[in-house]
Amino acid sequence: MAIRWIGHCERVIYITQNPLGPIPESISTLYYNLLKKIIVYRTPTFEKALDKLMGLQSWLNPLPDLVIVESLDMLLTAGSESALTDPVGNNDWLALRQSLFLACLADTVRVLGAKLKGDCYSITTNI
């Protein structure tokens, strides 16, 4: 699914918590034109991912027209605030973090779309 979207985009930001391994030569050759469009950011914590999204809003060039966030569920529980001290409960705490992240992602996509004078899209995955 994501490959189809990447094929229609000029630039793609890929935010992931885990480091990416080497890409096999056969895949690299086959998807060379797609892979050169992708900028990968490893954000090991929730806070760093939020910072990266906020930073994308101030970009001027090159502007991405697709933002992919991998493993949103894992990202929500990673970071300096991952030790639950709030009495509201773990489910409410995760829902709050998810709402904050998705709102920030939506705002970032809206800002980038306005700068592009077109559309910007986002894809999130869960594990």
Please render the helix and strand layout as text.
Layout: H1 2-7, E1 12-16, H2 25-30, H3 32-35, E2 38-42, H4 46-56, E3 66-69, H5 72-76, H6 90-116, E4 121-124
Parallel strand pairs: 1-2, 1-3, 3-4
Helix pairs in contact: 4-6
CATH architecture label name: 3-Layer(aba) Sandwich
The helix-strand sequence is HEHHEHEHHE
Using the alpha-carbon principal axes, give the shape: globular
Count of helical segments? 6
- Tally of strands: 4
First-residue to last-residue Cα separation: 16 Å
Structural class computed from helices and strand pairing = alpha/beta
User: Percentage of helical residues?
Assistant: 40-55%
Low-pLDDT parts are none
Strand content range: 5-15%
Reported by name, the CATH topology is Rossmann fold
In which order are the strands of the major sheet placed? 2-1-3-4
Mean pLDDT: 84
Q: How many domain modules?
A: 1
